[in-house]
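hiii so um. not sure if this is the right channel but i have a protein structure encoded as tokens and i wanna go backwards to a sequence. like what aa goes where. can anyone help
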């Protein structure tokens, strides 16, 4: 017999002494192996069977190989072992991995604006910015939700000068090589001392390269001191310390916000450079005004200038001439005073100003008021006419709040007749306190006639010396 035909639907072929294995024809479908029986290959360890009505197992001792141009799986796939592939995985939907992923080579996100998300709510994203770089973002819109990138070290014993974290900048593909491909810049956090339960003192170093791998050029200490220069670790003052070499010196307690230090033979200094027709300035301000004092240099006029309370206090021109517009200095002329009464001390009526730099002279009461404590040069020139020869004397003096400076006594009786005119001059360096006043006085004794006159050509002047 060359073939076996079962020509009716539903025929069953039974196997075994007790018919435990059956193979049943299913009309227009195929063959059915009964219950959980197996179809075995080679040995019992390699088989296909259905352990339940919903599960089909394919079992092999070592390997199951599927050879085709395409294997189409229309179901969820669960792999409990290791999956090794040599081709390319293409996903038409977003793959979900419920545990860690280990990638032993590159990961390529090959679309513009590709994004990686982090967190159960995907609130932190890392997004590609076309031809620019990467954008790290916290997507939450509530208040106080910044993005925070933390660089952590695994060291368990931080010692002085250990680097905690570092960001470096480099152009490794620069064609000229050598210095060009070294690290050009960096920012690093460095332990200032051994960290402990009570200290994590750390400085930030900002590093740049010139013809070298980047080295520190600026630092911010744990105390907030900003150090700059060839020796960038600031150790003086409370603010900015610009240091090119160590002098071993210190900073004054009331002047420590900016310290410039150099041990160079030429000393240390600061330069302010401006446009050649502009003005360079240093301003001093307070809570009440932005400019209480100003030091400035006008490059178009080559004039150095000091301002106090927004008013010009001192000029030095390009030839070194010094002028002080607010320096107390006055020059006043007297009114004509006719027939000076005898037995009287007269205040000379200086009521006409030639100049009064700081407005310290009052022409209504003929008085100079010292604006500050100091030494004042005071002088007068009195032109007096018609002194009576029968008058015993005329006394001239400069009067101040704390001193009378008497000059010569003029005795008209020394002359053969009444004097036509006399010129009396006197000067003194007077010590005056702030708000002290000064006047010029003439005393006429109690004899003779009231006939002497003070000419309007008389002058009183003065200025602050020191």
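sure thing!! here u go:
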């Amino acid at each position: 017999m060359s073939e076996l035909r079962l020509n009716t639907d539903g025929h069953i072929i039974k196997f075994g002494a007790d018919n435990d294995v059956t193979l049943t024809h299913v009309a227009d479908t195929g063959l059915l192996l009964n219950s959980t029986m197996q179809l075995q290959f080679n040995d019992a360890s390699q088989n296909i069977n259905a352990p339940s009505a919903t599960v089909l197992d394919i079992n092999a001792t070592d390997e199951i190989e599927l050879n085709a141009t395409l294997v189409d799986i229309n179901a969820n796939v669960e792999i409990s072992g290791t999956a090794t592939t040599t081709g390319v995985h293409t996903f038409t939907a977003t793959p979900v991995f419920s545990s860690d992923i280990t990638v032993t080579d590159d990961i390529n996100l090959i679309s513009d604006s590709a994004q990686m998300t982090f967190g159960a709510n995907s609130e932190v994203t890392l997004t590609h910015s076309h031809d620019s770089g990467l954008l790290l973002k916290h997507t939450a819109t509530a208040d106080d939700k910044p993005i925070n990138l933390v660089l952590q070290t695994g060291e368990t014993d931080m010692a002085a000068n250990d680097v905690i974290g570092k960001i470096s900048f480099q152009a490794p593909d620069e064609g000229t090589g050598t210095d060009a491909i070294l690290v050009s810049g960096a920012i690093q956090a460095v332990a200032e001392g051994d960290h402990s339960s009570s200290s994590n003192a750390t400085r930030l170093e900002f590093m740049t390269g010139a013809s070298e791998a980047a080295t520190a050029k600026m630092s911010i200490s744990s105390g907030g001191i900003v150090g700059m220069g060839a020796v960038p670790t600031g150790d003086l003052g409370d603010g900015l310390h610009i240091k090119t070499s160590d002098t071993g010196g210190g900073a004054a307690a009331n002047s420590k916000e900016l310290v410039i230090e150099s041990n160079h033979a030429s000393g240390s200094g600061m330069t302010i450079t401006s446009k050649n027709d502009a003005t360079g300035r240093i301003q001093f301000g307070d809570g009440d005004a932005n400019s209480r004092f100003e030091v400035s240099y006008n490059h178009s006029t080559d004039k150095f200038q000091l301002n106090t309370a927004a008013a010009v206090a001192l000029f030095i021109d390009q030839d070194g001439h010094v002028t002080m517009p607010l320096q107390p200095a006055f020059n006043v002329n007297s009114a004509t005073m006719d027939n000076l009464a005898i037995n009287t001390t007269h205040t000379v009526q200086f009521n006409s100003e030639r100049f009064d730099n700081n407005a310290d002279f009052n022409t209504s009461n003929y008085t100079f008021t010292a604006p500050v404590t100091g030494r004042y040069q005071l002088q007068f020139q009195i032109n007096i006419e018609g002194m009576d020869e029968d008058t015993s004397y005329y006394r001239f003096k400069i009067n101040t709040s704390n001193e009378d400076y008497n000059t010569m006594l003029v005795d008209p009786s020394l002359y053969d007749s009444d004097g036509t005119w006399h010129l009396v001059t006197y000067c003194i360096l007077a010590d005056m306190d702030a708000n002290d006043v000064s006047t010029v006085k003439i005393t006429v004794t109690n004899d003779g006639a009231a006939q002497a006159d003070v000419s309007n050509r008389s002058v009183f002047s003065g200025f602050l010396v020191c």
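oh and The mean pLDDT is 89.
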